Amino acid sequence: MTHTLLAAFALAAALPALAQSASDRKIAATVTAETGRHVELLERLVNVNSGSLNLPGVTKVGEMVRAELAPLGFQVEWIDMTATGRAGHLIATHTGNGRGKRILLIAHLDTVFEPESPFQKFVREGERATGPGIGDDKGGIVVIVAALRAMQAAGTLEGADIKIVLTGDEERTGAPLAIARRDLIEAGRWADVALEYENLAREDGADKGTVARRSSANWTLTTTGKTGHSSNVFGPGLGYGAAYELARILDEFRRTLPEPNLTFNIGVMAAGTPATLAENGYQVSAGGKTNIIAESAVARGDLRALTPEQEAKTRAAMQAIAAAGNLPGTSARLVFQDGYPPMSPTAGNRALLTKLNAVNRDLKLPEMAEMDPARRGAADSAFVAADVDTLAGLGVAGGGAHAEGEWIDLPSIPLQALRSAVFITRLSKEKR
């Protein structure tokens, strides 16, 4: 047995001592007994490439998860999404007694690592394991499976009304967005509570609760100018050119728009005669000479805000800057592309964290403070947060997401499974 598995088992062995009620003790005992099983499940999931554009790989991971959920009494269906350019979503529904809260669990099957990436395999490294998507979000899927299996063993799953939505395109959403997120949004309207299983937030060794996530929208700024010999730049005939107009607008963004929880990054830009943005939206090209005034310029970036109001206000301000005060001889056009909405820090979300902290106290675990939303990315939970109280970041602890060397702490699997199983059990018994 590897050192990593020994460490995972050592933590799991301590879990029953933390539990209070008979069902909690059974949950903890099951998590302990199945720690090795779930590390092995994670390894199998990680070793199947499921980059967002690898449709067969995403589908295969979905079938692997179906095999875990169907024996637990879930009705599992595959929602084909090839019309959006993606594989599809796995939706699993467990019908309980109809008396308690309806609970939605959210995670995703895909990763950012496509088949051409050199980073493809699960590797154990001491108390850590590395692998593509190991934390984002295959570790989260394993926590869900482990928690539900523990609930079944304790007899608390039988009466619970639970729906699981595992999207197949979280890292690179299919289009149109209205179709790609239709089923997730419908599930959010069905639910009374939503729990999302991306990476657990951890700072200075302390676990944090995620009650808010910022939005993620893209924007494209295009400017045009009159081209000609550079000796006439700034003059009445040719004006300033597209490059200076692009710089004016971007610098005005920088000087006037910053405020707490708001960012607007410039990811790529170019100016020249001409400058063009590729159809994929991620590459630009330009040509020109030092003695030619730039005819066109383009910049593409993102916008992240904490609330719908903050995002709407910022979009309007950016449009006003682009439209007003154009330098002589230039014009500008700013276009936004909708993406992930914000998951605002509502009273309902904070109430869920309070309930989770009650679980932590009963399990003799440290309470979890709120994570700074500016330190978290966007996620699928944002699509349901407008309709249902939502708590995010309930997956495994780790780091390096979206980069080669992505890793997790293996002992966080049983810990998070215990937290979730007890938490879901209690929520399922609350009256609607």
UniProtKB/TrEMBL annotation:
It holds the Pfam family Peptidase_M20. InterPro entries: ArgE/DapE_CS, Bact_exopeptidase_dim_dom, Peptidase_M20, Peptidase_M20_dimer, Peptidase_M20A. Residues 1-19 form the signal peptide. Its cofactor is Zn(2+). SUPFAM superfamilies: Bacterial exopeptidase dimerisation domain (SSF55031), Zn-dependent exopeptidases (SSF53187). Residues 211-326 form the Peptidase M20 dimerisation domain. One of its GO terms (molecular function) is metal ion binding. Keywords: Hydrolase, Metal-binding, Signal, Zinc. PANTHER family: ACETYLORNITHINE DEACETYLASE, ARGE_DAPE-RELATED DEACYLASE. This is M20/M25/M40 family metallo-hydrolase. It comes from Sphingomonas tagetis.
